[in-house]
Amino acid sequence: MPGSWSTLSSDELPDLVADQVNTPFDPNALLAAFVAPLYAAANVPMPFTSETERAEALSLFEDMPFHKEIPRPIAAPTFTLFMNLPFDLRAAIWKASFVPRSVSMHYMSYTSPGGFHTMESPPVALSVHKESRNLALKLYPLCFGSIWYPATVPFNLTLDILFLTSISVDQLPHFFAVMNQNELSRLRYIAISAPKLNRLSLPQRSKFKDALKHLAGLEEFLIYYPVARQGKSRYCTSVSCTVLGDILPHDVLDKGLMVTNMLNKDKWEDLEFSKPSKCKTLFSWKRCCCEDALSESVSTSEESFHDEDSDDDDNDVYSGDLHFDDSLFRPISFNSFDYGPMDFGGHPE
């Protein structure tokens, strides 16, 4: 009866407690007592496991680690069934490796074979497999040759960015003059540094503007302001290590830097490609990982650095062109338009 005292005498309590203490708890017996009526109601014979079988089964788990993560199998270093895939799928995989490249041109007038060349690495797909090479050659034809020198630069006219900074100001008109009609009509992206544009004389500037008018497929004309940085990245001449962006990242701002030679807006205000849809002004900086920049043989002391002008303005620093206070601000634009953020390392889609 709820709330009433127990009717057990004090003499009976010790015996009850003793029985509870002395009787060991057997979970198997409790489970059997619970399951047995269920088996009996279903007319199913209850399975019997002997003590020996139970001990043997438990012994299998004695050496198993408890809550220990089992390492995942290591992926195979090679995939040998690639050629068994359908051709359309293989072609899609090869084309996925074609990423935008930054290609800088150099003019070799006194060396063999001469003409316009690049020091940038060709697309990887050209040297992986015969099938990938055949597909890549269709999208990366050899470009920028002439009747005097053969074309030697694999270039994707609709994907890659053509950097003109390493071409001397005297050779810029000549470079556009040797381009064929296919290159003039399909080239989409051109990049040149502001110091290079400022060095053009009035006749050179006029020829350069006329050349740009013949680029029917041009979508973006990128003018970038090199950020001079201390350290080994200053000596890297590979344009593939150059990153373009309209906002400097924090890891660049936190280090010593200075923006070189801001573009003289008065000289280029009449440029027809200064529309927002065509022209973009950006910063550039080095994100170098090549062997030349990491080599211990490259000296980083100021005494060993000779600032000879090789027409590669990405690495040039001129005392008269330094703007220390401008390094935290956006570059001067042709127009007062806000182009929005741009993905570092490539042009917008």
Provide tags for this entry.
eight-stranded mixed sheet, single chain, two-stranded antiparallel sheet, 14% strand, disordered C terminus, alpha/beta
Low-confidence stretches: 12-21, 291-312, 314-349
Mean pLDDT across all amino acids: 67
**CA-CA gap between termini:** 83 Å
Determine Rg (CA atoms, Å): 37 Å
**What is the number of E strands?**
12
**General shape:** elongated
**Beta-strand residue percentage:** 5-15%
Question: What is the strand and helix layout of this fold?
Answer:
Blueprint: H1 12-22, H2 27-41, H3 51-59, H4 87-96, E1 102-104, E2 106-108, E3 115-117, H5 130-139, E4 142-143, E5 153-154, E6 161-163, H6 172-177, H7 181-186, E7 189-193, H8 194-199, H9 202-213, E8 220-229, E9 242-245, H10 250-253, E10 257-260, H11 265-268, E11 279-286, H12 291-294, E12 322-323
Parallel strand pairs: 1-6, 6-7, 7-8, 8-11
Antiparallel strand pairs: 2-3, 4-5, 8-10, 9-11, 10-12
Describe this protein's structure.
The structure is a single chain. By secondary structure, this protein is α/β, with parallel strands linked by helices. The protein has one domain. The protein has helices at about 10-20, 25-40, 50-60, 85-95, 130-140, 170-175, 180-185, 195-200, 200-215, 250-255, 265-270, 290-295, and strands spanning about 100-105, 105-110, 115, 140-145, 155, 160-165, 190-195, 220-230, 240-245, 255-260, 280-285, 320-325. The strands form three sheets. Strands 1, 6, 7, 8, 9, 10, 11 and 12 form an eight-stranded mixed β-sheet that branches. A hairpin with a 6-residue loop joins β2 and β3. The N and C termini lie far apart (about 85 Å). Mean pLDDT is about 65; it is low at about 10-20, about 290-310 and about 315-349.
